[in-house]
Hints:
Blueprint: E1 2-3, H1 15-19, E2 23-29, H2 41-55, E3 91-97, H3 106-116, E4 123-125, H4 133-141, H5 148-153, E5 170-173, H6 179-193, H7 202-213, E6 217-218, H8 229-232, E7 275-278, E8 293-297, H9 309-319, H10 331-337, E9 341-348, E10 359-363, E11 367-372, E12 379-386, E13 391-394, E14 405-408, E15 415-417, E16 423-424
Parallel strand pairs: 1-2, 2-3, 4-7, 6-16
Antiparallel strand pairs: 5-7, 8-11, 9-12, 10-11, 10-13, 14-15
Amino acid sequence: xxxxxxxxxxxxxxxxxxxxxxxxxxxxxxxxxxxxxxxxxxxxxxxxxxxxxxxxxxxxxxxxxxxxxxxxxxxxxxxxxxxxxxxxxxxxxxxxxxxxxxxxxxxxxxxxxxxxxxxxxxxxxxxxxxxxxxxxxxxxxxxxxxxxxxxxxxxxxxxxxxxxxxxxxxxxxxxxxxxxxxxxxxxxxxxxxxxxxxxxxxxxxxxxxxxxxxxxxxxxxxxxxxxxxxxxxxxxxxxxxxxxxxxxxxxxxxxxxxxxxxxxxxxxxxxxxxxxxxxxxxxxxxxxxxxxxxxxxxxxxxxxxxxxxxxxxxxxxxxxxxxxxxxxxxxxxxxxxxxxxxxxxxxxxxxxxxxxxxxxxxxxxxxxxxxxxxxxxxxxxxxxxxxxxxxxxxxxxxxxxxxxxxxxxxxxxxxxxxxxxxxxxxxxxxx
Length: 431
């Protein structure tokens, strides 16, 4: 699993050597956090993820043809077809976009796993810290991929924005996709696909409206077989929009619910079982004469302040550690231990015009800035990051994101953000 917001750094170095001669499906998580900049943006993101995986040394399946890149979105030097790795033994079966949080793409992932891997062995979920593995583990635990009794007997993984929360191997028994179960599952999926929004329970409608209000990409994840009546009454949507943003003093940790009635798996329940494992996260080490657009893609809780160059140093020294800048928090005591800022000069050539970004400048774990210069313009920029963190320049993930800006804020060079339309994946629209 990779964090789409963190490309290309999301792909673990030496992944083929780590995985070995295994079948691999790469999941691009957090697609719900990427606003729609063009109608086909999901297809473009999926093709981009294919490119990054192949460039990292993963062997594509036989017959795979790399997507044609539009002008300005070509692979970097050394990443073309002629330079694909030939000695990798890790076969990349598929690349999928999902949201472990809102459920988008999860039902399709389950169906793909049941068709391709069936019940031949264990499945391991690997990836970097904070990629969303524990959230997907919890979603699959409540789905058809886990045996019905296991969803009530196994504790959910603890979810936290801080890396390293999952310290041990978590697992649940995989449900054997027998022909009867597959048939019943397809009947349920077909029934769910024809279900209108107004037919959902009031609790489900309230949570769906919250998701739509925030413009998230939504998918409903259900269960075909249940073990007890309590499971049938469980809400399909479990989502807290506020948990995407946090500060140092308010960590939104969502731990397992402590039920008064515990169901236990017996040796007979798990006899000859194959397991799905959630593994601990792997930590990675790691001015033109015309105007230009800088689109900040980050949490709404992270303030953006625009100031002149001659005031920037004074502003940071005065407000770092306090409420105005939000991050880092902790006052003078925290700033005494905080690493110094390190500068990196960046030159971007060949602007593509006012509607298309030429590059993203990604700040480790915080978000990125999409840079849109004037046509054929060259920009000389300088970015600062805390020592020990990474600043990455990449091809734009959302090249047309500048087009979703709203009205200009009076008395400022900044613009309001235009709210993107909600995308509800597998429910009919109200008529």
